[in-house]
Structure formats: C-alpha cells, structure tokens
Design brief:
The protein is an all-alpha fold. The chain has 24 helices and two strands. The chain has a single domain, classed as MetI-like fold (Orthogonal Bundle), CATH 1.10.3720.10. Strands 1-2 form a two-stranded antiparallel sheet. Helix 2 crosses helix 18. The two termini are 23 Å apart.
C-alpha cells in the first residue's frame, strides 16, 4: 500500500497516468463491444435480412404482405404463441426458484447431483421433449395446450435455476439475517430483502425462457398436432413445405417485432432494479437449511423428481421393443451401415461430431459473451442508450426462427472467402449464436453487482483496466463464468434448429441424427432414436459433472 501511494505521489503521476488509464479503458471498452456486435452483424443480421428481403421481393401470386399481417389467422397465431410462452415462462419461474435456492444456498448432500439432473432436460432437442411428453398425454392426439405448456416449462427450468442461482450464491445474506433479527418473518425478509437483489437475474432468466418458449419448434410440432400452431411452426411450414417465402418473411418480421418488444420491456425492468449489491464469496453464503428452509428444499427435490419422469421414460423406451427388453437400438446406433438413415455414419461418430462442434461453439460463445458482459457492465455510465440497444441486440438470436437463420446462411455465406457454406466452422458459429446470449445472461447480473468502488480503488492505486478485471472482477464472477461455460456447452451440444439445416450429411450431430431417425418409419429407427437420446443425455451428464468438479475445486476462491 505504501509503495502504491509512493508511486502515485511521484511528480506528474497524478496528472498523466489517470488520463492514460482512462483512454486505455475507453479503447478496451470499445473493443469489448465491437467484437460481439461485429459477429452478430455478419452471422445473424446479414443472413436474416437477406432471407426476409428475398421473401418480401417475391413476385409470386398470393396475398400481399399487408394482408398477411392483418389477417385474423395471423393474429390467432400471435395470440397462441404469446399466451403459451407466458404460461410456460411463469411455470418455469415457479419451478426454478426453489431449485435455484437449493443450488445456491443449501449445504445438503447430493447438491452436485441436483445440478446435473436439472441440466439434463435442457440439452434434449425439442422434438425429443415433445415425444417424451406425448407418451404422458397419450390420449391427446389432437393436441393439448397443457402438454405444450408443461413441456416448454420443463425444458427451461434449468435456465431459471442456473441464472438466478448464479447471482443468489453471491448475494450477502447478512442483510436477510438482520431483517429476521428485527422481527421480519422469513417470507417478508425474502420479499423485501432477497427478492429485490435477485430481480436482475430473474428478469434475465424470464426473458431467455420467454424467447425459447415463443420460438419452440419441436414441442409444438409434436404436441400441437394439426390443432395448435405458433409463428415458429407456421414459418417452417410456409418455408419448407409450401415454399411460400413471402408469407414466411412476413411472419418472421412479426416474430422479430414481438421479440424486440419483449426484450425492451425486460431490459427496462432490469435497469430499474439493478444496483451494486454486496457480493460475498460463494462458500460464505452456503449453510445448512434452517426451519422453514427445509420446506423449500423439499419442494425443490419434488421439482427435480418431476423433471426426471420424462427422462426415465425415454431411457426405458430406448430399452423396450415389441419383443421385450433389448439393446438392439444401441447396437444399431453404434454400428455403421445398418441402414441408410444416417448415411452410413455411426452414432458414435455423430457423438464425436457433437462434442467437437460444441467445444468450438463454446470457446467462441465464451469469448463473445464475456466481452459483451464486460462492455454492458460499464457502458451504462458512458452511453446508456447504446448499452440498452446492445443488450437487446445480443438477445435477438434466441427469438428469430432457426429456419430463417439456416436458410439465410445458405443464401449469404457463399459471399465470404472460400464459400463459407462448406466450412466446418459454420455449425459452431450457428450454435454460438444461441449460446452467447445465455453466457451474457449468466455473467452480466453478477458482473453488474460488483461494487464499483472496488474498481475505483484499484485504479487509484495504479492498476490498469486489465489488472482491475483480473484482481477485482474475475474473483467475483469466476464461478458464474464456469457455470456459463458449462451451460453454453450443453446448449451447443443439444442445438437442433439451425444445425439441422447446416450440418453436412456425412457429419451429423446427435440431435440431427435423432431428427433424421424420428422422421423415418420403422421400429429399428425408433429404437435408434431413443438410444441416441440416451447417449446425448450421458454426454451431457459427463460435461456437467466435469464443470461441477471444477466449480467445487474453485469454490474457496469465490
């Protein structure tokens, strides 16, 4: 400390170095914002604008764009899309909050197992989730709204648990204890002290879940049958089956407008409640549940048990055939050349493709997501409007149809050097588009909650912006970064929408293999599909366990 003070007291140090540090910090901030936005412009905005432009310029006969946008059928689709998304988001929040409490605050046995089990449903392709719930609602072949809402809520509990739990693990619980000591009930202490501090993470999680539910494809396609459709399934129908690019483009614009409105409302709610919280090391906030907290733990355990019902059903289905229990699906999947459904590629090769592309996507998503989080945590002080626009823009890939993005890539990527449409990097780039917003939503609430006075004190003592990040921010957000990395990996591992359009026939990922197998008739194809789902869940479990081990090894540092 004395040496730092002496260094700052040298002649000219107080006049020159602060100005230099400010310029360096400004350049670093500009770079941190430019890289994610540049990637978004090239690999999202350009392809989507291209495919929408082609649709709007179409000269084919049929209703005009204005007629399509104002028709009663279109607004019926909008109403159902938003209604089921709101209901599923509310369900995911209600189910995910007790699990977040258990994961973040409770020193109980098997807490790591809870993290694993909660994450498993999220990696499953939405088509598989739809099939799992169809077995639970066997009498609803004509479509069931309840089944759609439950499936979408089931799919997204992990988003709430991990996003909220990431911040909850670091919030100082001494304020809550003080409120209890002053006579507040446990519920009042939660609503008046804890809940306001968690609002940024809750609104972030709600925004992500809403986007996933409003653009859910496989769940609605399988469970809605011919009775219920959303904007996402209608865009797919018009693009792939009817070749109605004009209608698909009009609906894509409507979907984009709804997504932007939802994101703007969510960002406004977060800005109103974000404050510099008193963060603590994660190890200091975890303790054995007391009194009524055991009831919340029991509720969380019940939620986890319910999440496992469709999972267990899938595993059982992968082992059962018309002739009894059998491993025929696994043997056929792990061999090659059993049939032409996968083009002679074995399920093991598809698994390796999944692991490799997910790893590449995670590296890219972490680089872009952490840079974006750093920029968004600093920008509100310099340019709040730009920060708000950037926050909304980074979330847009979650709310735009994967069909639109996939076809947009095929239309535009040939303009890049070497015809990028054939590049093996195209699939990881598409997966990173989906994973990056989740990294931002996991890391940003914790990063914004770091007390800025700590950064100012470090800068006053002569630390540059990179050293401030290393010494102040990283120890606080390190656990959230690890969680975001694991989350991004399993999201990339299970991504189906854009990957199904971009994966080469000779290099499918496991979700793409599942989609191909499900679309073909035959008992062997069904057994191979369920076996591929079980293999995908096993890979996910291994990834989550590795991340959990890393988190436990570092917990003393956070």
């Amino acid at each position: 400390m004395a040496q730092d003070g002496a260094r700052l007291s040298r002649p000219g140090a107080g006049r020159v170095r602060p100005a230099g540090r400010a310029r360096l910090a400004g350049l670093a901030l500009a770079g941190a914002a430019a890289l994610p936005l540049g990637f978004l412009a090239v690999f999202f905005a350009w392809p989507v604008a291209a495919i929408v432009g082609i649709g709007l310029r179409s000269t084919e006969r049929g209703p005009s764009v204005l007629a399509l946008l104002t028709s009663a059928e279109t607004w019926s689709l909008v109403g159902f899309t938003l209604g089921q998304a709101v209901a599923a988001t509310a369900l995911a929040l209600l189910a995910g909050m007790p699990v977040a409490f258990l994961m973040a605050r409770c020193a109980v046995p098997l807490r790591g197992l809870v993290r694993l089990l909660v994450t498993l449903p999220f990696v499953l392709p939405t088509v598989v989730v739809g099939m799992a719930f169809r077995t639970l609602f066997a009498g609803s072949d004509d479509g069931s709204v309840l089944a759609i809402v439950l499936a979408n809520g089931f799919f997204n509990v992990a988003v709430v648990a991990r996003t909220v739990g990431g911040l909850w693990a670091h919030t100082d619980r001494r304020a809550e204890d003080a409120a209890r000591a002053l006579g507040a009930s446990r519920w009042r202490a939660f609503t008046s002290v804890v809940l306001p501090s968690l609002t940024p993470a809750i609104t972030s999680a709600a925004a992500v879940v809403f986007l996933f539910c409003s653009t859910s494809f496989g769940v609605v396609l399988v469970l809605g049958a011919a009775r219920y459709r959303t904007l996402e399934t209608e865009i797919y129908l018009r693009t792939v089956q009817l070749l109605d690019l004009r209608g698909a483009a009009a609906l894509s614009l409507l979907q984009l407008a709804a997504v932007v409105a939802a994101l703007a409302l969510g960002a406004r709610a977060r800005r109103r409640r974000e404050t510099a919280l008193r963060l603590r090391r994660a190890a200091e906030t975890v303790r054995r549940p007391q009194g009524g907290e055991w009831g919340v733990v029991a509720l969380a355990a019940g939620v986890v048990a319910l999440l496992m019902v469709p999972i267990v059903g899938l595993v059982v289905r992968s082992l059962s055939t018309v002739d009894g229990w059998s491993l025929v699906g696994y043997r056929a999947l792990l061999g090659s050349g059993q049939n032409d459904t996968l083009g002679g590629v074995s399920g093991l090769a598809a698994a390796v493709n999944s692991l490799r592309t997910a790893f590449d996507a995670t590296l890219l998503a972490m680089a872009l997501g952490v840079l974006a989080s750093v920029a968004l945590s600093r920008l509100p002080r310099r340019s709040p409007r730009f920060a708000h626009a950037m926050d909304v823009a980074l979330m847009l890939p979650l709310g735009v149809s994967a069909v639109t993005v996939g076809f947009g890539y095929l239309v535009t990527m040939d303009a890049l050097p070497g015809d990028f449409r054939t590049s093996p990097l195209l699939v990881p780039f598409a997966q990173a588009l989906v994973a990056t917003p989740l990294v931002v939503r996991t890391v940003l609430p914790v990063l914004r909650a770091v007390d800025d006075r700590l950064r100012q004190a470090a800068a006053t003592l002569g630390a540059g912006p990179f050293r401030v990040w290393r010494e102040v921010d990283l120890p606080m957000v390190g656990r959230a970064v690890l969680a975001a990395a694991g989350f991004a990996y399993v999201v990339a591992l299970g991504e189906f929408g854009a990957t199904s359009f971009l994966a080469r026939p000779d290099a499918p990922t496991l979700p793409v293999a599942v989609g191909r197998l499900i679309s073909r008739p035959g008992e062997l194809n069904n057994q191979m599909a369920y076996a591929a789902c079980a293999l995908l869940m096993a890979l996910t479990a291994a990834v989550v366990l590795l991340v959990e081990r890393a988190r436990v090894a570092e917990v003393g540092e956070f």
